[in-house]
Design brief:
The protein is built from 19 helices and 9 strands. The radius of gyration is 28 Å and the shape is elongated. It has helices at 7-10, 23-35, 52-64, 79-85, 103-113, 135-146, 166-169, 182-195, 202-211, 216-227, 237-244, 249-260, 264-276, 281-299, 311-322, 326-345, 349-363, 369-375, 391-404, and strands at residues 41-45, 92-96, 123-128, 152-158, 173-176, 199-200, 234-235, 377-378, 383-384. The longest helix is centred in the C-terminal third of the chain and has 20 residues, at 326-345. The protein folds into 3 domains: 7-176, Rossmann fold (3-Layer(aba) Sandwich); 182-244, Helicase, Ruva Protein, domain 3 (Orthogonal Bundle), CATH 1.10.8; 249-365, Zinc Finger, Delta Prime, domain 3 (Up-down Bundle), CATH 1.20.272. The strands form 3 sheets. The protein has a 5-stranded parallel beta sheet, covered by helices on one side. Strands 6-7 form a two-stranded parallel sheet. By secondary structure, the protein is of the alpha/beta class. Bound molecules: zinc ion. Residues 65-67, 74-75, 77-78, 80-81 line the site of zinc ion (ZN).
Length: 411
């Protein structure tokens, strides 16, 4: 048996063209390399797992490639490139600022800058989590960042740009790496499954992509773990759901349907059953919000910003969209948002969320504001307001409705 190598390591991009989902940054870097206009200090920012260190390493490799010519991609054949493949080079120094935060650590870097690389043209410092440096360490680094020796490059990476002093930020070329789009990650996972001889359908791939939360590395780790569950090299969504402890999308859509139908009791029973499956009340609310968003997109002919739903869920949502009005959806959206706020500050978010759902389900039976005005009827209490009755009376009924169902009526 071969030595086990995690997928995230095995498939780590080795050249710019392999980097997924960071097209703009890669384009600027590749063109910058071509025109020799990248400068001596670059900063990669973004959440964990989006490829900051990976991109910094490819760039370091490209800077040092002995065959560097018009093509900015590292050749992967020269001695320098091959040393990278072997696990590192003495002229590429990787520092984790989280454990080297002090001014002394930075002084060592600065001192080492004075010496030329043992081989090749550039000595490269990759400083990870650079925001962890102390203020005095940043101050010590400042001058070197501003005017580094011609043979030195600094590649900095951070998850928290706002913790880096402005004086440093103004001296580096910044690249803000994005969370990778779920569809793109699913596509990537599909290609990896193919290479690993694993069968996984679109729903399963999308589930892994979503669980990775925009991080290719996290999605690959999930796939790594899931492969151990695969029977006959086949990965199923239900295995994965058990492994990830994810909520069944179909169950949440059913809950939404019950809310739209004003079936308060069944909705709450469903909600409690979802809670038994280890999802939090806030988790359910966030999923509901997402589906309401999709419904609103469907009503307005907008493409949802991220669409990675299984086919049967899409079909079901289309049916729901046909039976509900846009104002009603926008009302539910507002109530859910407000409810999330309340649940976040409450002692027992599950109970708070339950009450919010009761409120939303009841409000789903309320007519829209324009219906109230046009018919002068408030359906909540089925109280008909005689047209002869003053506007004032209708207004006070509306006020009652607002009090009963905060967020339900848009005035
Ligand atoms: Zn090379």
């Amino acid at each position: 048996m071969g030595v086990y190598v995690p997928l995230a390591t095995k498939y780590r991009p080795k050249k710019f063209a392999d980097v997924i989902g960071q097209d703009m940054s890669v384009r600027i870097i590749v063109n910058g390399m071509r025109k020799d206009r990248l400068g001596a200090a670059l900063l990669f920012s973004g959440t964990r797992g989006v490829g900051k260190t990976t991109l910094a390493r490819i760039l370091a490799k490209a800077f040092r490639c002995e065959n560097r010519g018009s093509d900015p991609e590292p050749c992967s054949k020269c001695d320098s490139c091959r040393e990278f493949a072997g696990g590192g080079q003495m002229d590429v120094i990787e520092i984790d600022a989280a454990s080297n935060t002090g001014v002394e650590d930075v002084r060592e870097i600065i001192e080492s800058c004075q010496y030329r690389p043992a081989q090749g043209n550039f000595k490269i410092f990759i400083i990870d989590e650079v925001h962890m440096l102390s203020r005095s360490a940043f101050n010590a680094l400042l001058k070197t960042l501003e005017e580094p020796p011609a043979h030195v490059k600094f590649l900095l990476a951070t998850t928290e740009t706002h913790k880096i002093p402005e004086t440093i930020l103004s001296r580096v070329l910044k690249f803000d790496l994005q969370r990778v789009n779920v569809g793109l990650i699913a596509q990537y996972l599909s290609s990896i499954c193919h290479r690993e001889n694993i069968v996984a359908d679109a729903g399963t791939l999308s589930l892994m992509a979503r669980a990775g939360n925009g991080s290719i590395r996290d999605s690959l780790s999930i796939l790594d773990q899931a492969i151990n569950l695969a029977k006959n090299n086949e990965l199923t969504a239900s295995d994965l759901k058990d492994m990830l402890n994810v909520v069944d999308d179909a169950a949440v859509v059913e809950l939404l349907e019950m809310i739209l139908q004003t079936s308060v009791k069944s909705a709450i029973t469903k909600y409690r059953r979802l809670l038994d499956g280890s999802v939090s009340g806030i988790g359910v609310a966030k999923m509901l919000l997402n589906y309401v968003y999709v419904l609103i997109c469907l009503k307005t002919n907008l493409e949802p910003m991220e669409n990675s739903m299984a086919e049967e869920i899409s079909v079901k949502l289309q049916l729901l969209a046909d039976g509900v009005s846009l104002p009603a959806l926008s009302r539910i959206w507002q109530m859910l948002l407000k409810g999330l706020e309340e649940a976040n500050i409450g002692d027992n978010p599950e109970i708070v969320m339950e009450m919010i759902l009761v409120r939303i389900a009841y409000a789903s039976g309320l007519p829209d504001l324009h219906e109230i005005i046009s018919s002068s009827t408030v359906a909540a209490g089925a109280i008909s307001v005689n047209n002869a009755a003053s506007k004032k009376e209708t207004g006070s009924l509306l006020d009652d409705a607002v009090r009963m169902f905060p967020g339900a009526v848009v005035k």
